[in-house]
Amino acid sequence: MRKRILTGDRPTGKLHLGHLFGSLKNRVALQGKYETYILIADVQALTDNFLTPEKVRENVLEVAMDNLAVGIDPAIATLCIQSLIPEIAELTVFFSNLVTIARLERNPTVKEEISQKANLFRGGVTMGFLGYPISQAADILSFRAEVVPVGADQLPMVEQTREIARKFNLIYGKTFSLPRAAVSDFPRLKGLDGKSKMGKSLDNAIYLADSQVEIEGKVIKAFTDPKKVYKNDQGHPENCVVYQYYQLFSLKEEVASVKERCESGKLGCVECKKNLMKKIIAYLEPIKNKRHYYEKRPNLVKEILLTGTQKARKITQETMAIVKKRMKIDYFD
Ligand code: TRP
Questions:
Q1: SS3 (DSSP) at 189
Q2: Beta bridge partners of 183
Q3: Is the distance from the beta carbon of residue 315 to the nearest atom of ligand 1 less than 6 Å?
Q4: CA quadruple 242, 248, 249, 255: dihedral positive or negative?
Q5: Which residue in 144, 201, 208, 330 is deepest, having the highest Cβ count within 10 Å?
Q6: pLDDT per residue as tens digits for the range 250-281
Q7: H/E element holding 260?
Q8: pTM (2 decimals)?
Q9: Would the CB of 47 count as within 6 Å of ligand 1?
């Protein structure tokens, strides 16, 4: 039997190049080898977007289309919607007995997010948000997934999932195998501002769905080496996001030549950026064509999600039957 993968996206915005290189390419490569489930985590998205449910709703289809556009094949991988899988919510309740509040407060990803969302949580952190690692453990374990392809920022979530699985097994008997994270070896992609990682909320991202004009406008404004003001100044490519992007979109020889010509002052930033734009646009072309195909067929996308969710529930229902038996609440079976 093939091992099972579960991974997920929060539907809070369209996906960008950071997602593409950080996780999407990885999951596309793995989909044939593993039994792959991709969860559109709308319940999790609502933990910090509860004031704007329409945003979450709109992005469920967007995120599904992004996945399909980069090559997730609905014939071999399964896309499904978290809120339509109530077993996850049920399992979350049982798991919450196994996790202390102090442990949740120590989760580094949650900690960082809380400090970023100081505004939203000014009156105090909600139980839903603090507890979302438990819900994420339920995502993974309700599928009895063994492999979880994620970006490095999600490692604390997988670690906490393993703790919960271990504790459940210890108390109620061996039920779950401990899942492992499969982190793509690609380092976090910097945003166009050169300061932080590419992110939806930071206005520094190139989206898979961006038009040619949008890409051109963004790349021309990208942060470059501040010491290179004039074309003939000697540049420091290691301090330049444009150079980082070349490493994704160009062959080795060209990367080496860009480096050499930038450092020696032969290559100006404008020329360098114009060349990069063309490469990004060409790279995204087939992805965008595929996306257009699905954009024109929203009913097909809904059908894929509905069928996928039904398939997913067979597994999660099976899991809950086992869990309830172990927890001795299988009264009428
Ligand atoms: N927390 C993940 C993120 O922000 C999304 C996610 C939800 C997820 N459920 C998951 C990832 C289960 C892996 C497995 O990107």
A1: coil
A2: 150
A3: no
A4: positive
A5: 208
A6: 999 999 999 999 999 999 999 999 999 999 99
A7: helix 252-263
A8: 0.94
A9: no
